[in-house]
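Look over this record as teaching material.
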Amino acid sequence: MGNGIILMGMVTYFLIILGMGLYFSRVEMNREKYMLGERKIPGWVLAFSERATGSSAWLLLGFTGFTFATGLSAIWMAVGSALGAIIAWVWLAKKFMIKTKENNALTLPAFIADMFDHNRKMILLTSTIVIVLFFIFYLGAQIAGAGKTLHETFGWNPILTMFICTLVMIILTFWGGFTSVVWTDMVQGILMLLTLTIIPIIALYQVYSQDLSIVDTLAETGQGMNSWTGGLTGIALGVLFFNNFSYFFGYFGGQPQLSTRFMALKNDRERKVGTLTVVFWSTISFTGAFLIGLTGLTLYGSNGVDDVEMILPHMVLDLTPAWLAGILLSGIIAAIITTGDSQLMVVVSSINEDLIRGTFGIKLSDQTLLRYSKITVVVASLLGFVMALATESLVLLIVSWAWGGVGNTFSVVILLAFFWKKYSSIGVLATIISGLVSTIIWISTPLDALITSRFSTFVIALIFGVIFSFIFPDKKPTLNASLK
């Protein structure tokens, strides 16, 4: 009976977001509306969408499990992520908005290429290759995560659960494009916020009513769990800090599924509203996720769950009535779908806008491009589904690759393009290529166990970008003066 009520709550949620997708599909589409919503979406909606997409299942499953396993030192991962997201909205969003209006760019690669007079097509080509390469696998990671959660909850065949989530992603992206994705992401962002607020409150009450102590539990568990520094000093402490804090470096405009939210801003007023929304969402959500890990450890002990990343679903099922569990578990699936459909939009726009239209210069009508975009949605989704079937280790592995190979690499490009006048088009290409190569090498060797590729990629890409800009400068200034 309990599982039936939980399932009913989740089905209701899926019907709501599918209904929203159907609603937006009724609006007449053109190329700009499909890719960026014609910049008419409210700032607070874009902010909820950006945070839901940027946090995704790694916050609800990954970070809660990481806190459960490591204790107080996990806080630096939350601080790095929240601070990176807030600074991006305060510091970079306005520059994205202004430059997008000047050049009418619809994608991150086009946005970057339009700031340079040289090697535009090569920038588009290399950017598209890197983004599509990582994001097809990244999409597979989301599908695998969704299947894992539904399998753990209901015991269903994981292939069936992955296919269901793939189908939902296809429908949402296929019907309404960017507008549909953003508005459904907003609903999912609210649901994630509720999950990360309600569960910690209930868990803290249980800790209090059972006369338990979080402080005592952390001390008894040992292994530096009760230390904000993990009980480490010197170089070991520096490694822990950089590894946990390193998500910070990937938020500076380098994640195309997040940067498009900045590009879609209508005006500065909407940006300010969005910034306040992000500060509120990040503060509540990261605090809640941190408390879930600590209270979960206190209530169930370090051996309370077989898979630490399942601590939140376990707490939802154990601490809440079935009807509420169905709603809150939907928040976890929501996070996965949020990232999945946003990644689909990135792949679609990269192939159709940056490759077909930008690199190869093939002139197609808006309706033809829309038709190709929808075909790309289906093909990319099915490829992601195949990747999800390929290996059980896909989720953790590919998220790490994508964060370094795409997020940190393109963050370097954005920062140098915005704030360094001597950055050249060859420097851009060197940044992107070195980011791709160094990520693959770094994460495939024992080096990643010492210093995460999320940090090393940023540094290596920065060094190559600067060096090659000095060696191969562009013949004349290429950056828009308004951004300097």
Notes: Residues 391 and 428 are 34 Å apart (CA to CA). Residues 2-392 form a domain with the Sodium/glucose cotransporter fold (CATH 1.20.1730.10). Residues 158-209 form the longest helix (52 residues).
